[in-house]
Structure formats: structure tokens, C-alpha cells
Batch of 3 targets.
Target 1
Amino acid sequence: MRLEENNLMTKNILICGGTGLLGPIAGNVLSGQFSVRIHGKSKKADCQGNLISYAETEALLNKEMPDVILNLVALTNVDTCEEDLQLAYNLNVEIPKNLALWCKKNKSLLIQISTDHIYNSAYASEEDVNLVNNYALTKLAGEASVLMVDGMVLRTNFFGRSQTEGRVSFSDWVLKSLKAREPVNLFKDVFFNPLSMKTLSELLAVVINSPHPGVYNLGSREGLSKEDFARTLGDMAGLQHHFAKSVSFADLDLKAARPLDMRMNVEKFELTFEVTLPTLKSEIEGILTSEI
């Protein structure tokens, strides 16, 4: 049953790449409203398939017949994207294209999770693109196919307690380091405005229930530097952080360039979906009290 015929019934959601960091939490939240299936490499996934191949993509989707595809598949390691552009292209461009081709034929909705890495200025709007590495380049290129089939692109960043074995979020790393009193470097000149994975997942439900094609920045209001984020998290968790070192990005010798200011203007999303997004400090507090 296609999306336009399915408004009064449970939509079938397929989360591609759903065994990563965000997938388990998104699946848990969305399953409260929709019929959710998880695609991934893990044996815990409901289905597997090589989405780089259109033939395998088509076979998988013809079997699953989702009304909505939420694509979380991506090569997110910035240095790997710089070293292996072909791999970055396959995962960040080819897969969204294959999903989009199937959605066009079957009139399904494609929601692409993109990144704040395509920006490099304070509170950038959706038009203020500034690419500094291959990760940003391929993620932006992957958006084009989604938009051609009236899909939705959500540029975002997220944190929170991981439910995936072997994967840790930025906030997980901060808490672990502070609890162990390990010396860590905290960037004083890198800024962002992410959401918790729980809040992001709840907003995905809003988007699925009332889709509006296009590109949207989806983050918290009033962003912070990564240093201030970590120290705020430490304070709220009652942890000492005097042994953490304040550093500039230029102090480290990394293979790929990174944007220094990824804070996004989120007004378009708020106005379109009639919501008020939370502040980053309230999101930090939320991950310390939430069960998810």
C-alpha cells in the first residue's frame, strides 16, 4: 500500500543502516506509531542487502515495500572519506540515488539524514553551504537524488547514550573520559548545535506524519563550542573536568580539514512543522535523565 493510500493506517517504515548509532533509538521511538523494519549488516537487522547495487536494492525494497525509507547509511569517518573518495561516493551518493530511483517508481517517501558538516559559519541557513572536505562534498551530492523525487533532507548532528555495541557517541566519550579522569582535548573553537538522538527520533515521527519535501536544518537552538558542551555535560553529571585541556583545532594535525562552525539556523524547520526546538543545554540535561 502506497503512502497516499495509507494516511489512516500504519505506515511501513524501513530504516536503512538501522544498526548504527542512531538506528536503534529511532527504531524504538518510531515503532510506537509505525510498523518499523531495520536494514543493516548486523544479524540483529530484520533484513540485509547491498544498497550500492541497484539490483540488490530493488530486490530488497520490492520485498519490504516500505511506505517511507529513512536512510541512515553513510561513511561518516571524515579522514576515510578524504583517503578513499570512491568508497565515500558509493556510500554517500550512490546509495541515496538507488533508494530515490525505487521511491520514484513506487511513490514512497525518502528521508535522508545528512550532516551539519556542509556548513562553516555561525547559524547558517540551508543555502549557506561551505564545503571543506570530501565527507561534506559527498553528503551534499547525495542529497540531490533525494530532492529530485520530492524527498526530505534533514541536515543534523546528534548525541546521547548509545544502544549499539561497539559504538559510542560524542557525549558517551566525554562522560567516559571525565569519569576516568583521563586527560582529553576539548575544542574551544569548534561550534555545533546537535540534538539528542531521542529528540531527533521524536521529530522524525513528526516529519513522517506530515512530510514537506525539501532541505531542513534540524538541530538545537543556541549552540555551543565542543569544549563548552563537554564542560556543561560534566557539570550537569557532577563530574570534575579541570584535567580536560582547552585546545584550538589548529593544534591538532588531522588528515582532513573540518569546519569550525557548524551551528545551523533551524527557523525553517520550526516554521514548517510548527514546533519549537529545544536549546542545546536542555538537550544535554535530557540525556542524563532520559531512559533512552
Note: The first strand starts at residue 12 and ends at 16.
Target 2
Amino acid sequence: MDEELQLNVPLLRRRVPNLTTAAREAGLRAATVSNLCTGKIPVGRAEVRTLVALASLAGCSLDELIIRGSGLRMIETGIKALDLLAPIARGGTVGFVARPNMGQLVLLAELMLRMKKRGFATVFWDPVRDTPGIEHVQAQSDFRHSAPEELFQCLADLREEKDILLGVDRSKVLSGELLALREKLKENGARPITIALVDTKCEAADEEGAYGPLDTLWRFDADLISRSIYPAVDPIASTSTLLEGAFLDAVHLAAQQRAKKLLRRYREMRSLVTAQGVDKITDADLQLYKRGERLESFLAQPFYVAEPYTKKPGEWLTLYETLEDVKRILDGEMDTAEPSELFFRGRLALTP
């Protein structure tokens, strides 16, 4: 939609200091350029030749000049469980809720690596705390800062040309420093900053609303950890505001709802099956149980940052591929496969 297009004004003004004069010399009306910069004229109503001329003046592409999508929309991570069940909102905030040794910092490091593949800049607001696993995050950060002033300048410069993934420790939320940073960064025409909040002290798990308002919540699950299913993100308790509005297409939303319904029923039966065996459930429930077991196995996925430890190459699935394979499990096409055949892999093998 037209209102979802914005001009990257900071980039334009930085690269063309005397914008009015340069625009006039390029044959553009100064008033038109001014109105585009202030938003009085929507970018979608601008003449193509005007936008092309501005991009030429700035020495950039139209994709760099025009920021697409000011509203909430999903960022694909290539991680099956996250994209299906609790997707990230571009420019939103995602909170990690975990106890010690659940892999939250490994997941943040993996997320940073994957976002770099998508052209994001990755920044870490370093809490300067010796926390096991934090070195993985630091290694995947393009920029690391502990001082708020340095961090602000870094973000202000980067967001003129790139989307940013910013990793932040909960201590910065509690101190009020993150709120102060958000206030300073409020400006029009710059690319969004997506914030990932982790809790290096692992105290958030015992508190309601531990981070304040979130667009996405990833709650880690001890049962998944005990069975070495990673990412160990609870498929029922984890959620996203993208699931509450018209932000996902109907195919994604339908698959997500069916998957959560199946996994919820599967989890309800797990304790009974574990204690007394499958003989205690009906044939219909047994079919659901087995499909839930297959889906849970399929949602386990090798990470790029864990390759030295797992000896398995990282896997990236597009959302389309994830939805297609999940539908095959839900529809019973994989009923003859053992859960172990679906575990910790990428795509399912296609039948001839």
C-alpha cells in the first residue's frame, strides 16, 4: 500500500547536503522535493522520474531510497519453529524468557547470523557481564557498545541505510536506559530497529510482563531441553502480535493454528503415554499423538552457529517450505515415517 512507503530522508540529506539546490539543478521542483521529505506528498504518489532523479543525486538505488513497510510485518528467519509459531515483527521487540542453560544466547547469536544474511546490521548493547554463552552473541555482532552515547550514534548512523537487529540485556530495560534510547531514536524516515531482549541473569522466567510490552514472546521449555529438541521454544506459550491481526496471510495463519492445536493436544497426552504407554489412549488420539510427535521432531533444526558442536550444517527454510512441510505432517502424508526420520533436519524428502 502507498502509505507503507517512506522516503529515506536521513540518507538523502546526508548524501546531498544542499538538497534544494541540487534538486533544482536536476530539473526537479524544490517544493515537490520538500513535500516528499516532510511527508506532505506520499511517496506512492510521486512521479517515478522524481524518485529516480533523487536516487541518482544520492548515489543509491531506489530500494535504498524508499523504505517499504512502516507497519508490522514478519521477518523471515529461516527457523521453522519461530517463523511458523511466533514470528518476529519488523521493527518490533522480541523477548526471550528462559532459565539457565536453555540456549537463549545461542538463539540470539543464530538470529544475528541469519539477519546478517538478510542484509541487516547487527548490534549488541553489551552488558559487560561475564555470562556463559555471551561470546557467541559478541561474535555475531557487527557492532558492540556498552556506552549509551556510542550506541545511539552507531544506531543513528546505521539506520539511514540498513535495518538493524539490536540485542539488549534485560538490565537495560530495568535501568530505564532502553526507554531513554528509544526516545532519542524517534525520528522519521529512518529504517526500523528490531530489538531482541535477553535475560542474562535468567530472572524473567519468574515474573509476569518481565520486559514490558512485546511484539513477540519466545518462552523456552525445559521438557524440550531434556529431550535435546532445539530451538527449545515452547510452541504453545510463545506468541506474536502478528498472529492477532491481518499481518499474516491466510495460509500461514491456518497452518499456525492447526499446528498449535495439534501440539497442545499432543502435549496433554504425553504425560499419560509416558507413564502408562500408548495402550491407554484411543486409536483416534493415538493418530494425533503420533502426528504431534512427528511435528515436534520436524521443528527441531540445526543452527549455523552450532555446526562445530553438532557436526551438522545449519539449515534455512523459507516460510513457504516450512508451511508446505508442516501441512504434509498435519494432513497425514508423513504418517508412515518415524519421528526420528524427521528430527533435526531441514526439508522433508519429497515423495515421487
Note: The chain has a mean pLDDT of 90.
Target 3
Amino acid sequence: MNRKKVLIVGGYGAVGVQIAQILHDRHPDLDIALGGRSLGKAAPFESERVQTVVVDTNAEDPLLHAGDNVSLIINSVNDLQDRLLLSAVRRKIPLIDVTRWTEIFEQSIAKLKNTELHAPVVLSSGWMAGTASLFAMLQSASLQNVAINIHALYSLRDKAGPDSAAYMDRMTIPFHIKESQGSRLVFPMTDPVKVQFPNGYATKCYRLDTPDHVTLPKAGHVDTASFRISFDSKASTYTLVGLVKSGILKMISGDRFRSFRRSLLYNPGTGSAHHVLIHLKGRDHNGRWVERRIAITDPLGQTHLTALGAAVQAEKLLRLPEDEPLAPGIYYPEDLPDARMDTTAIINFFKQYGVLISH
């Protein structure tokens, strides 16, 4: 790999630091710039290949002071006005973004459709930087008429950055899911499904609005995709369900109560394992219905799994020959598999970092 430079925006945060460390250790010839709002902040780990730069996603041109010769940008902080996104597009720099909830995700796509692209834009805002969607796509690629159900067990003791609590502001807003009969409007924290996770914890999981259910059905063989979540405290889960169902959460949906809403489920701890369970159902090449199950556990938690999801996508772009770049356009995390990085290589990448994967 020729010498390249990756800019990680939010490089001081819980996810950004881990992305930087993973790519730094795997690519000895890679330079890394950590972008943040604070001028002169020390790098989180020492290396002559790591520098810090000022990048403020709220600025009119966030990349104004980011330096030259950036080969790839990875964004791990909220970019609500798409300023960083459009700044990267203007500079023709490939971008991977792992931060957008569905409304902002769709807002960004709408803007990009009216913009000429000269580099790939990878919108990887699905669960854990699209890791769940990536594995769902890998395991469903040989099937047709696929229904994908993703379930996540979120530990309230896990490490988390403040942006991770933004979903609490979406709990009263209905969203559409695609089903075989067409599109249907559903509400967060409804339609419970009983799930037993890899650690043996059995609980009900409830609908949550994530980009996974938007991007996965874009694949021709996927008819429908749903995402559901539960927390490792049943009391907290049922409290949230009750607040949504009773309408109380909607009553406190304004800016005045934002801190209170987020505090309901945002009290990050020192770390805990993160679990994802994916159920697939589809027709094989003989037309028979088959079911598949993928269990994913990261003992180091959701920030680590998110960092791995971003890093595996970055490696695809970094390893491409200069004379065979990825064509300009909008990509999703499940678009990753290709001849250079097959299913076995992707699974081995995650396992190398302690992620447990079973079928």
C-alpha cells in the first residue's frame, strides 16, 4: 500500500480512538490525523505517524484546517447539517460516516443526489457502523425473498459517547418498514419479539428506527428487514416501553427535557459485552424455505464493534489499487464484500479482535 493519510473526525472519542489504533497497528505505512474541535489537544496514543488537526463539524467548512493529501475521511461524530459531508465531497475525498440516524441519513442521501460525486461516500450508520447489516448480507447472499430480523442487546454498563444517546430523541417518531405486502408505518418500542441472546439472556426486543431497515431492502434478494433492541435491564426496557406507550415521552419531547430523556438510558459504565442476533429466512436455489441464524458478541462492547465495522470498510478503500479506485457514488456497509475481501476474510478480521461469531 502506498503511503496514505486517513483523517478520523472525532478521533479523540470512544470510537474514534479505537478506529485509529486498529488502522495504525495494521498499516505501518499509514499516516493518521485525528480531528477534533480543540486546538493543540494531545493525541490519545504516541506515534510519529499520528497528528492532530482542528475539525469542527459545525463550521461552514470543517476541513479548512485539516491539511492536504488526505486519502480517506472517517467520521465518528454527529454531522447534523452535512457540513463535513459536503466539505469532503467538494474536495473529492472518500468518506465513511458512522453517525447518522435514519432521518439525517435520508437527508444526506437527498442532498447527494443533487451533487456531482467524484469519490465514494460510504454511509455506514446502521447498527455498529453497519456490522449487523454486513453480516446479514454475507449470510443471505445465496437466498431469495429474504426476511432479515436484527436484534441487539444493549448493555447499560457499556462505554458510550454522548452521541450514542441521540436515539432517545427518536422514540416518539413513527417510521416506515418495507414488507412483502408493501410499506408499513410502525412506532418505536412496539411489536415485541422474544429473543435469547448468545449469553443466554432471554428478553423481548422492540422496534427501533435504524438505517438497516432502509438499506438492506435495496438489495434485490431482500424483501424486508427489521431492527429491534432490548437493554440488559428489563426494568429499564419496560420503563421505556411504558413511557412511549403512555405518551409521556412525547409530552417531554422538546429541547427543554432533552437532558432528562437521554439520562433515562445514558449512564455509561466501564464496559460490557455487546450482543447481536440476526435471523434470516429465504428461499434457496431450489425454492425451499431455509432459516439461518448469526450470533455476534463483542466482549469489548459496542464502541469496539463500531470501530471494527468502520475499520473493515476503511480497509476496502485503502487496499484498492490506485488504478482501480471505487467508483464515485453512495455506498452502504453491506456493499463491502467483493473479490478482494470475501466472507471468510471479513469473519476472520472480526475474530482476530476477539469478536465471537456463530451460526
Note: The chain is about 30% helix and 25% strand.
